[in-house]
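Action item from last week, closing it out:
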Amino acid sequence: MLGPVILAASRSDKMRRLVSAAPVTKQVVDRFIPGETVDAVVPIVQEAVASGLELTMDVVGEDITTPEQAAAARDAYLELIDRLKVLGHGTKAEMSVKLSMFGQALEGGHELALANVRPVVEAAAAIGTTVTLDAEDHTTLDSMFAIHEGLRKDFPQTGCVIQSYLFRTEDDARRLAAAGSRVRLVKGAYKEPASVAYQDKADIDKAYVRVLRILMEGDGYPMVGSHDPRLVAIAQELAHRAGRKLDDYEFQMLYGIRSDEHHRLAAEGHRMRVYTAYGTDWYGYFMRRLAEKPANLLFFFRSMLTKG
């Protein structure tokens, strides 16, 4: 399986230098990451909303080693919020954050991440939009869920992400599927050991359906994070069985992947949110996109052969 190998490479400084130096890399990265600055992505936001799509914005970057870098990540999101305020799209342009960017892995990281993310959530609420806390590897989740619970006391619209490949996720889904909650379900994109996560794609997909049923039958707001046509169809059926209207849940897909499907679902009346990342520290995000789907990896290697 190439996926775990690619995920391991995402932590390698040597591979980072090699991939970054490849002549074709920028062309391929641009497929998944439309810009490096707020100015570059504002037209993307405007175009997407005008075409009936919604967005969740992610400033890429995870390898935070100092409190100063964590504060800079906070400030990058506050800059984004200032620009979104002018655009006035409300929840049509929300944000996703990784707590690792806010210092979660540093000494005293739980408190540091909470202190850094709170002003972002507060500023987002002030302009009428929301923040979703992304899930990372399993060792960070108890901290993430505790921060999520604390933030929701003052900002109940704060969302979180759960991953179907983890054994714990069905229990997490039952706890989270409560009135007012916003929960994005994804398969998972980190290298996890067999002691905590399913390793086989079929098992991950089956778990995804089980967890999705819990969310659809619950009282919260499910966010279906998948590009898989079969899972998209299953989500629609589960929503129908649960008596959900089209605005009682949403689909989420990555920028640059299955764009035609984004517009098809939106045209059918579904809420369709595009996960749109930007920034200069793109390497970890890019490598996980390659690991998630063989077609992405083939696209990259084909481009290197034809354009390198």
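Closing note: The chain has a mean pLDDT of 88.
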